[in-house]
Amino acid sequence: MNASTSLRVRLPVLVAVMQAIILALFAMFVTYDDNANAKFQNNQTNPMDNSLYRDYPYFADVQVMIFVGFGCLLAFFRFYGFSGMVFNFLTATFSIQWAILIQGYFQFYHDGKIHLAVINLLNAEFACAVVLISFGAVLGKTSPVQLLVMALLEIPFFSVTEWAVLKYIRINDAGGSILIHLFACYFGLGVTFVLYRPTLNQGHAKEITCYNSDILSVLGTLFLWVFWPSFNSALTFKGDDQHRAVLHTFIGLSASTMTAFALSAVFNKRGKLTMADIQNVTLAGGVTVGASVDMMISPAAAYALGIMGCTACYFGYRYLTPFLARRMRIQDQCGIHNLHGLTGLISSTAGICAILLATEETYGPSMYQIFSHRAPPEGDPKLLELQKLIPGLKPGLGRTAQEQALQQVAAVFITIAASAVGGVLTGLVLKLPFLASPSDEDCFDDELFFDMPADFDSVEVLKPPVSCDEKGQTSPMDTKV
């Protein structure tokens, strides 16, 4: 083991310090929510009214996505399967712990305490998803120490941005297309921009897949695909809003999957399917419907968004990712700009259109619940009329559709700017020499950080892998994204 990349001191010290800090903060600031506190329960309490039964199914589904879906998906490199899955496991576990505190401070802090319930864990998982998406941009080129530091910094950047956008700009973004996918994408691109490695633009000997690693990766895709409706609907209003979110997500995913198979076959020079397309492009529809997932956009619109997102994602992988690496110093290893950035922008645009087209004729009085900032302000006589139809309706800001749409546009630009700046600053920290960054030669190789079993087939390849073009000539193979 090279001394500059040894984890023997770096990882245990970092983990010990972070765990000591988290333990101290939990002891000082974290207590039970009323739904988890025994002293608030009595003989009149119906256990089935507990929020656990409302929130836990979504928490469990998203947890499968985080630990199994992302973990398997990131194990696509032939010699980097251990690292892809295990570093995801480590980073996700810490991210959720840290997000419980940071997210909890902004959302569940009162009376000097963070009141802990399953909903806190669910919110922390969404923040964790942001970190894991960003991780995809630097996969194979970072140490576990760097990844923990990235999570340590990204969670606060994300939480502050989310709080500012929701509190002061006040947007509709039920599926997180703006605050999760766009933030994660441009944060990750900011990090990889700073960590640019010129030699990797020529390809790397171990930047290849194999039969088993591709099967494992597509298994991760299937887990993400199956549970994505829970991801998009978890934080929507219960009832018809959540019902639409599940329907739209499934329809969008279905459309993007069918489109991905067609595009993969028609643009392959030998008319065959490409596993990279199946692993990534099929998921685009889940992101593309996100910003409007709970709105009355119609099933046909959800289907069209799935096709649009898949098409943009596919051509992004094919043409934009290599361009960014060659011309803009952005080596987006897993193509997060295609699956989360381009689709996030399409989704944000669709959400803005849905807001502009929303009328009481389509939504009825519930329009002011779904688009809460368009509800009449306190003191408006119309608010009293609406509260008779929808008990518990809260006062809004009285915004018009056009005003709300402009706020959505502002949120997109602010989120992209904040995440890119945060990513660049985090990248500068990750360049510090004592964080065990692998050399160019050691990238995409499990042996650098793991004791490998005897049957590990690590071959020394001196040239980048090659592929055949349609004339039968060989050329360096594009990076799998």
From TrEMBL:
Domain of life: Eukaryota
Originating organism: Scomber scombrus (Atlantic mackerel)
Cellular component aspect of the GO annotation: plasma membrane
BP terms from Gene Ontology: ammonium homeostasis
Protein name: Ammonium transporter Rh type B-A-like
Similarity comment: Belongs to the ammonium transporter (TC 2.A.49) family. Rh subfamily.
Cited InterPro entries: Ammonium/urea_transptr, NH4_transpt_AmtB-like_dom, RhesusRHD
Domain Ammonium transporter AmtB-like: from-to ranges: 23-433
Keywords linked to the UniProt accession: Ammonia transport, Cell membrane, Glycoprotein, Membrane, Transmembrane, Transmembrane helix, Transport
Gene Ontology terms, MF aspect: ammonium channel activity
PANTHER family listed in its UniProt record: AMMONIUM TRANSPORTER, AMMONIUM TRANSPORTER AMTB-LIKE DOMAIN-CONTAINING PROTEIN
Coiled-coil blocks: none
KW Transport (keyword) present: yes
Transmembrane regions: 12-32, 56-77, 89-108, 114-140, 147-166, 178-196, 208-228, 248-268, 280-297, 303-320, 341-359, 409-430
Location of the protein in the cell: Cell membrane
Membrane topology: Multi-pass membrane protein
Membrane as UniProt keyword: yes
Role according to the record: Functions as an ammonia transporter. May play a role in the elimination of ammonia in the gill.
